[in-house]
UniProtKB/TrEMBL annotation:
This is Putative metallophosphoesterase. Keywords: Hydrolase, Membrane, Metal-binding, Transmembrane, Transmembrane helix. It comes from Pigmentiphaga humi. One of its GO terms (biological process) is lipid A biosynthetic process. Residues 160-328 form the Calcineurin-like phosphoesterase domain. PANTHER family: PHOSPHODIESTERASE YAEI, TRANSMEMBRANE PROTEIN WITH METALLOPHOSPHOESTERASE DOMAIN-RELATED. One of its GO terms (cellular component) is membrane. Its EC number is 3.1.-.-. The lineage of its organism: Bacteria, Pseudomonadati, Pseudomonadota, Betaproteobacteria, Burkholderiales. It comes from the Bacteria. InterPro entries: Calcineurin-like_PHP, Metallo-depent_PP-like, Metallophosphoesterase_sf.
Length: 394
């Protein structure tokens, strides 16, 4: 590990310690009227400040049972602590506003009991959010059905069905059992093709091959197509590309295939992840190259992990881009940051003459929690556009 990387890691882990200290200072003294609760919270914060960094260090080495247990513990702490931190921050903003009201009006709004009561409320709300988030993350993804209207769609392609999985994140907490369950759901849909739009894994081929192999059982008329996400590059992208090809998946790296469905052509193109060139220069994401030489007039579907590839994809002539990456925000506070990086967060959007659909993720990243953002397997159906649906929109 380089000296710069060690420095960045030390600074990041130091920041984790500081935010834990902040939560402890703001909540534990306010809970001293219930010593058992103050003690439990203090013990949790001490455990969390150790287990969270440990889970990050061990998540790439989670083949052993002990390492997986440590990762599970750290990720559960991360989920609960995220809720505690956000709610503590919101509480402090509210208390600051209360102090402002007091200074302006001379009346003690809310009474002195607001400080301990609000601390109890933060702990209770954080526990509730974590429990709900865990349930939502660990339940099987629901099937979301979406019609996409395309102008000039050949009659033979009316009703063409695409099953999309994205951001499965097979790793320490998502294993073969969950992958088989997703495969069974997709196979029951009897789709015409399956699209896997990146971030399939969080670990090496050596550790996760057996847990990814059930994807070879995906069944559709035209097969399964895969594009890389950023997490493939953290885990050894070329090894995963080779493995998935051997498993029978069609990996598209800035290239396309032409499907013949009822005699009509459909172009299925795929690009490497938006930032792939930082890891493998030969994988630089290139929508124009992916669609070069495609049959003119044929509908063009582009698989691209990150939504922010959409501008280049639209300029290259794609009619529909399928993406993931955002997880729909997944849980607080990350849902506030996704729009700073991506043009759209979830669902169906228009970019010029192109449609963009963003899957909220079939799995989850990091803590096993989803709060208000359910996972999904998407079944997209191509339908002919109405008179106004093929027009360009800004």
């Amino acid at each position: 590990m380089s000296q710069r990387r060690r420095l960045h890691r030390s600074m990041f882990f130091g920041l984790i310690g500081l935010v834990h200290l902040y939560v402890g200072v703001r909540l534990v003294p306010a809970l001293l009227s219930a010593p058992w609760l103050a003690g439990l919270l203090g013990a949790f914060l001490l455990a969390s400040v150790v287990l969270m960094p440990a889970s990050m260090l061990l998540r790439r080495q989670s083949g052993s049972g002990r390492a997986r247990l440590a990762v599970w513990a750290g990720l559960l702490c991360m989920g609960l602590f995220s809720s505690l931190f956000v709610l503590t921050l919101a509480r402090d903003v509210a208390l600051l506003a209360r102090a402002g009201v007091f200074l302006l009006s001379g009346s003690l709004w809310g009474g002195p009991g607001l400080v301990p009561v609000s601390a109890y409320a933060v702990v209770a709300a954080a526990l509730a959010m974590s429990a709900i988030g865990f349930f939502m993350a660990r339940r099987p993804p629901a099937v979301l059905r979406v019609d996409v209207p395309l102008a000039g769609l050949p009659a033979e392609l009316h009703g063409f069905r695409i099953a999309q999985l994205s951001d499965v994140h097979v790793g320490p907490t998502i294993r073969a059992r969950q992958v088989r369950a997703m495969v069974n759901v997709v196979n029951r849909l009897e789709a015409d093709m399956v699209a896997l739009t990146g971030d399939l894994v969080d670990g090496s081929v050596e550790d996760l091959a057996d847990h990814v192999r059930p994807l070879a059982q995906l069944v559709s008329r035209h097969g399964t197509f895969f594009v890389t996400g950023n997490h493939e590059y953290y885990a050894g992208a070329q090894a995963w590309v080779d493995f998935l090809r051997e498993a029978g998946l069609r990996v598209l790296l800035n290239e396309h295939a032409v499907l013949r469905h009822g005699g009509a052509p459909l172009v299925v193109a795929g690009i490497a992840d938006y930032g792939a060139h930082h890891f493998l220069p030969a994988h630089r994401s290139d929508p124009a190259a992916a669609l070069a030489g495609a049959p003119p007039g044929a509908p063009k579907l582009l698989l691209a992990h990150q939504p922010r590839s959409c501008v280049a994809a639209a300029e290259a002539g794609a009619d529909l881009q399928l993406s993931g990456h955002t997880h729909g925000g997944q849980f607080l506070p990350w849902n506030f940051f996704v729009p700073l990086q991506q043009p759209f967060v979830a669902g169906l959007h228009r970019v010029g003459r192109m449609w963009l659909y963003i899957n909220r993720g079939s799995g989850y990243w990091g803590p096993p929690t989803r709060f208000g953002v359910p996972s999904e397997i998407t079944l997209l159906r191509l339908v002919p556009a109405g008179p106004d649906q093929g027009k360009e929109q800004s």
